[in-house]
Amino acid sequence: MPLDATLDTASLSGGSLLLAWQLKGKRVLVVGGGNVASGRIESVLVADALVTLIAPRSGLHKMTEQLLETTDRMTYHDRVFAGPPDLEGVDMVLTAIDDVDTSRAICELCRARRIPVNVADIPPLCDFYFGSQIRTGPLQIMISTNGQSPKLAALLSKRIEAVLPENVGDAVTKVGQLRGKLRERAPGVGGEVGKRRMRWMVDVCTAWDLEDLAMLDDTMMEKLLNDGWEYNRVPRVQEVAGERKANGTAAARPPAAKPANPFLGHIAGFLLGVACTAIALLARRA
After folding, report:
1. Please, what is the angle between helix 35-46 and helix 62-70, to 10°?
2. 240-245: long-range contacts at Cβ-Cβ below 8 A with a sequence spacing of 24 or more?
3. How far is CA 192 from the centre of its chain?
4. Domains (ranges, CATH) in the chain?
5. pLDDT tens-digit profile of 197-219?
6. pTM of the predicted protein model
7. Which among 7, 148, 157, 191 would be 20 to 30 A from 259, CA to CA?
């Protein structure tokens, strides 16, 4: 916000804090085995969580059955929720059952133990919401309506996914690899070296197109570091890629789909810009 802008105090309430929750190695309890539960399970498995599932086998969704057969990060109990003992050592609880009274009871037990809980279809009982998500490689985009309209969030998600370049995930991956090589060459946390790393990575991400970042390989990264980082400059793509760029071997950006709904199209176009600049923002962590 510009320093001379007038603060809109009405905008300081009514929202949620959107975070990237790190669940690797954390224990997540899921109560319920139906369609909603299967989606929840998939989401937390993607985040490398350890899942404990409590649900009668007779009601298990096919996707949930497949997940139980294909991952070793799930523990399954063929029964209903048994009370406080099921919450021992749990870091997060997700309920997706058609029993409002039991859902409320589980929520109360979680609140008493300060365990974050999400109760499907009962927003007031949720400490957090599951938004509609887009995932391509390491890039994740979440659309949240703060529990107001999940259907609209899903529609927006599809529109945004349709206009994202196919190689945006590859670009993020390659930037991460370049960032790792730079940290090996110029180690240290904070200080002038850290600030210089951040500035240089941001300059690379803003000077090169997504297609150019996506085609980076080990040889190009080394040349970029040797001819760029060492001299505190950002070489042009042609200097690093040589004939590859001249011959047009870089992946071309697919034409953007034109949304039928003007409102959704406006939102999708805006968030596409956000997704593209996320690569530059990632570099700030260097």
Report:
1. 30
2. 241/212, 241/215, 244/215, 245/212
3. 30
4. 27-130 (3.40.50.720), 168-283 (no CATH)
5. 999 999 999 999 989 999 999 99
6. 0.68
7. 148
